[in-house]
Write a structure and sequence with these properties.
3-stranded antiparallel β-sheet, about 160 residues, 4 helices, rod-shaped
Length: about 160
């Protein structure tokens, strides 16, 4: 239910978070609809990066029940439909949106490999197995370098 997407609801201000708002086209259509078609809306800010919609409204013109009815009607527009593995189709859109699930799992595998090599290197160092300790330490350093390269834009 779309009413579950309501993150906060104060008089004069309501915030929605929904996966379909990550699509900039859907977010733009919803923004245009809210700012032009609804009386009492002061502003609507959509952040497609976070999947968030902040609606500021006049509580004298729009009451909570009207906004909850609007949320129920908007559910059919914003509810993503699962197509296949890693694909989502938003109603009204012709092509599915692909998710980067492969990239996330590759990053997860890299992080786990770093953890395993670090733990094994420390273990072999504690046991006095110098060659294994050095080899696993070098593998950890190489994996750390690959990790830093993959997240270089976040640093």
């Amino acid at each position: 239910m779309f009413s579950d997407a309501i993150a906060s609801f104060l008089d004069g201000r309501i915030r929605f978070r929904h996966a379909a708002l990550h699509d900039p086209d859907v977010a733009a259509r919803l923004h245009d609809y809210l700012t032009t078609s609804l009386p009492g809306v002061r502003s609507a800010r959509v952040n497609s990066r976070t999947g968030s919609l902040l609606l500021e409204y006049d509580p004298e013109v729009l009451d909570r029940s009207t906004l909850l009815d609007l949320a129920a009607r908007a559910e059919s527009l914003l509810a993503p439909v699962r197509e296949g593995k890693g694909e989502t189709r938003v109603p009204g859109e012709s092509r599915p949106v692909r998710h980067r699930s492969g990239r996330v799992s590759a990053r997860r595998a890299l992080n786990r490999s770093m953890l395993v090599t670090l733990a094994a290197s420390v273990l072999f160092g504690a046991l006095g197995r110098e060659r294994a300790h050095v080899a696993l330490g070098a593998a950890f350093a190489a994996l750390s370098t690959a990790h830093l390269y993959s997240v270089r834009k976040c640093l």
